[in-house]
Amino acid sequence: MLTAEIEQLAPIKPANDKDQKRQSKPVALPALLPRKDVHHEPDSSSCHCSCHLHRIGEDVAEKLDCQPGAFTVERHVRCKWVCRECETLVQAPVPPQIIDKGIPTAALLAQVLVPIVLDQLRWYRQSGIYGRSGFAIPDTTLAQWVGVYGVRLQPLVDALAEQLLAQPVLHADETPVAMLKPGLGKTHRAYLWSYCSTSMSSMKAVVFDFAESRAGRHAGEFLEDWQGTLVCDDFAGYKALFRQSIMEAGGMAQARRKFHELYANHKNQNVEEALKLFGVLYDVERQVQEVNCEARKML
Asked: Which NCBIfam families does this entry report, sorted A to Z (predicted)?
């Protein structure tokens, strides 16, 4: 039984030269990754003929390794110094921490926050992972840490939003998120409103603005007195902005979607021609993807 399983796991040999050529080449591991040499030497440096062996070279095979998360403890030792004459006590101040009198370092807080934002890794799952690494952190504690971390990062978010609102063109969109209010026992739909600079801007930035609803007033409160061109979909919540000093720029993907739905339902020849024209437009966009704004205007 075990032999059959091993044979199934064994790589299949190519049937001919063409299959051999089609086989993928070994992946080159990035040079920036640190290396640790593991040496394998013969049991003896003497030949079976009793002569001494001389090293003439080596074969190197690289294997990708990953060490699981491991906790360490930083011991911050603040030595006390005193003057024997006047009894003046001197001691280094307590270094600033993100959480006053808390146990997590800035690196641990970043390790907690990044998987939540980028990987949607919830706190109870992280708590289990940390438990396997030697120190289980309750998910309620992780939630408290992230709350404090968010308050500490707010000045950076405000500064980023200020820089973003200095851009002449912005993209906007909104996405639903589940929100759990204390005492309700169930989630309701809230929204993350996102605002970002264009691909042609020298400043690459995205700001997320949380709101408990999809009401258009949330976009108005974020943009306030901003004047420029807003690239967004045809959501009615943005329409009030365009009655002020903001210019509307619709996305071609939303326009094409209506034609695609119409063609999928009716197979109309005129609609098919419109879809082909969209394809030509997308071809032009691909050609000028790396071209600056002035060159784009010449097309």
From this structure: transpos_IS66
* Domains: count for the chain: 3
Residues 174, 240: one domain?
yes
DSSP 12-71: PPPSSHHHHHHSPPPPPPPTTS---------S-SB-TTSPBP-------------PPP--
pLDDT at 5: 46
Q: Which domain holds residue 169?
A: 165-250
Amino acid identity, position 160: L
**In this predicted model, what pLDDT tens digit does every residue of 195-222 receive, in sequence order?**
999 988 889 999 999 999 999 999 999 9
Asked if residue 242 and residue 169 are part of one domain, the reply reads yes
Secondary structure (DSSP) of 138-159:
-HHHHHHHHHHHHHHHHHHHHH
Contact 79, 92 (CB under 8 A): yes
